[in-house]
Amino acid sequence: MIRKLAISILVLTISATPFSSGALSVAHAETTATPFQDYGDAPDSGNTAGLAMHAYPGVPARFPTVAKRSAPSGPFHTAVATRLRYILGYGVSAEEGADAGSDDDGGNNLNPWLDEADRDGRDDGVALPDNLPHCQRVQIQVAVTVFDRGQQFPENAFINLWLDFNRSGRWGEQQTCPNGAVAAEWAVNNHSISLPAPGVHVITLPAFVVWNEQPGDDMWMRVTLSESQAPAADGSGPVGGYSYGETEDYRLESVGSPLPPASIPTLQIDDFIPVTLFKVHLPFVALPQGFNPPEEMPAPGGVLREVDVAHLGGMVNSPTMPLIVTVIGTGYTGRLSSWTTSSQVGAPAFLKDGPLLFGHNHQLHVLTPPNTPKLAHETLVSALIQGGTLWLTTWRVLNDGTFQQLDTRGYGKNANVTVDRYAIAHRPLVVNANQKRHQVVTPIVHSGGRLRLITWEINAISGAISGKSDSGDIEADAAADTDLSIIFAPGEAPTGPLVQPHYVVSLRNVAGNLVSYLWSVTVAGAPSLRGSGVSGRNIRNTDDIVQSAQNVAIAPLADTGFVAAVNTGSGSLKLLTWENLTTVCPDANSCQYVASNISDNMLDLNQAGNGIQQPLPTIMTLRALLRDPLYDADLYTKNADTLQSVASLRKVMVTIVALEAVSNGFASLDDAVTVSAAAANVSSSGADSMGLQAGEVISLRNLLYGNMMVSAGDATWAIAEHIGGSVDGMVELMNLKASELSMINTFHCQEGSTFSDASYSTARDQAILWESVYNDPLFLEFAGADSQEVCGALPGNVEICHPAVPPMTKNMSLYPRLDGYKTGGNGGLCPSIPIFDTIPTCVGRGCLVVQATRLQRPLIITALQPTGQTANRWADARRLFDYGFRQIFTPDFRASSAGVGGVATDFGLDYLTDSHAVTAALTGDQQMSLCNWTTDAGSSNISKGGCAQRSYVGLPAGLQQTPPTRLDMVRISTLEAEGDYLLGRLEGNKLVLRLWRIGEKDF
């Protein structure tokens, strides 16, 4: 991961600006503000305060960053105002000094007192890989923006690159690879470039050899663009500074693992080091300053056509006052306004108006940190379309409501794209005391219904916006008036076959159906389409389903799902819950996803009351239990306490007892177990086996795989002897464990030549047993393995595998998101114990204990079908899982504002807390109404508080008509459920709010 990563740009002339004139707080290429110099931001213990700084934990920083009167001096560039000729990237912030004096982006590049560096808000000119491969040659690219100052072209300049390969806290050293190739920390040494003309130029730097022996550690890098050569290998500059150019320092995070030494090639240097070129991608455009609104301003009297609202942070009765922002628009212009409120039941209070915005389709978005109450005032992003270009602007709103415009960037015409529709979502990348970096993603719809994903990065402290990447076109066949909605789902894991962080984009296609697109976006901003569907798959992921939609709004659900609210083709409201499933995985980081429909509100037979009611499933199995282990709830029971023999389900207990011995240090998974003749003889009894041979040596780990994957009775016997000392000793340990878990109806005995015949239990006791380890990853490794190479060694160290042609396999696709299972069938009795004489065994293929997890909610099923009945375990388990997950994830209607929402032609909504929401609505006569609401899904309450009305007259009229918001939805809480959702809907000319609960956490 790279802490700061910049992308190339292609600046084209744009004839109009969507914002009124006024200087931005963050300096751009054309700034005339003071200060007027540029410095780096690598830590420097030679700072003016004389305080020690650190490059890495425990490593003093000796990078030359602060300017000094003698060498080595930190590089600085004196012309970042009117004489500016060229810079890295497309922005530069001016500083009076690296660690003192005024600084355009709000804070000094270095703070020696807090030992903080990497604080420059305009390091945006370099593209780097996510890793730097050890002893391989790589290339990087930089973007250089050139300005016309009347100089002669072509103009010559120099680029230098330094990397702290050995993490010593200084640059200038070098290391030698095994083949003799030298990895110099002055990686690019006074590379001369020719700048042919004004504009943006992407420069590919010469290849250099990387040294990266410390996998996963950070690494400091410096890039300097200047009119003269760098004087030294340590990254310093001339004592008097450079006139032109810019220095950018980067702390690269976790820059990759080295190759094992034996894998490093030893050919000739020019042959063995492949060149890997890491490309800069994208056209983005900066907003030029000084533009005034178009000369031919339309006449005043514009009708209000659109409105949005956002809560920036703070809450009633807290140290931080609530700040609320609204934006209204006429189709040509828009106006920001700030508000506060001192009560949920009182009316909001107007603070101040912001500047006039030129454009249409105004939206507001707040860069809120993850999983935190909205306590502090966060950075505001406003977005609009002007002239076919999508513009994003960052704002800081002060306590008195004053708007400070920070930065503006656009995408559209400069990339030969005319933006028709867009949506906006964000993902926090780094949020701490020193940094607030957010990834912002904006899907756009443009000509012919094409969909494209645009990625950005925003520094929420300085407000600096960087364009990142562009997905290219997807032929989405989006309807001309489609809604576009996007959410970020954090996923289950940053990498690997589990669902990774991703975005969901939903729209309506020309056929009038809901379509969802699933995208992954790297930390560096590179998007990849991972799946799409019209509209998705059913709950079992076996068949496609299609949902009609006139309008759509989506909101997050758990970590891997979303809720879609649609106005159907018939005009009715429908809420659907979806889980994004992994389908195929060509490699660990290229998995494809599909949206699986778990449920919808129409399945609730109790639409008017709290709680979900659906028909009980019809199953053939006589003894069954469906458990929610997270919240200790039985969702379905059928003869769950009736005793019978459970056959090979006893192998679950065997595994648990063995893993407990490992956990307590009495055994190891790597123990070499010698298979006895008795264990090897199990296969001759007709019981399931993996073909172990007497004298074979095999690890306890592999025996556990055989025990749980293929129900191998010979493995079970060998485990029993190893853990219990004998099969009788193991039986004793198993009964002790059953007693410890209060499995009052469970008894294990042993007779005969197999160790899996006689275990008496109930569906409830087997659920208790499984529940004791349902979230134990080691147990689930064995219970849920689908493919594993299982081999041992015969005398003479001759390898033997089970099966002979590996791997051992188990079908884990019998239901989506299975965590593990164990089957049982037939089995035996202990005839020497008379009380068990009449107890039935499992019918062949009749018994099952299984766990599946959907949307991070696990369910456990035990199904015991006795002899004399028809085996139906998997069909019944699927019906029970369907029922259970729908019981959890069916949207539960809680309350409605019908009758008090008021007249509205457009609206927006947001929430302050789980019990406090706010709506902004256009009510006609150039009026906007901002209202407080009290919301409580637990008590099924939604009530309207006070409202404030404000007139907006005299704004320029416009012809651009953004379709009104007909549906909007926000998740307001995850405290008592996976989500409480507030949904707004225009019904005729009335705004109606509805409150829903999904995924109750305690039944």
Structure characterization notes:
The chain has 1003 residues and is mostly beta strands. It contains nine helices and 63 strands. A five-stranded antiparallel sheet has the order 18-26-25-24-23, with no helix packed on it. Strands 27, 28, 29, 30 and 31 form a five-stranded antiparallel sheet that branches. β59 and β60 (941-951) form a beta hairpin. The longest helix has 17 residues, at 873-889.
Task: Tell me briefly what this model is.
This protein is mainly beta and 1003 residues long.
The amount of beta strand, in percent, is 35-45%
Range of helix content? under 10%
Instruction: Count up the helices.
Output: 9
- What would the average pLDDT be, to the nearest integer? 87
Strand order, sheet with most strands: 18-26-25-24-23
* Separation of the first and last Cα atoms: 42 Å
Low-confidence stretches: 1-33, 257-295
Secondary structure: number of strands: 63
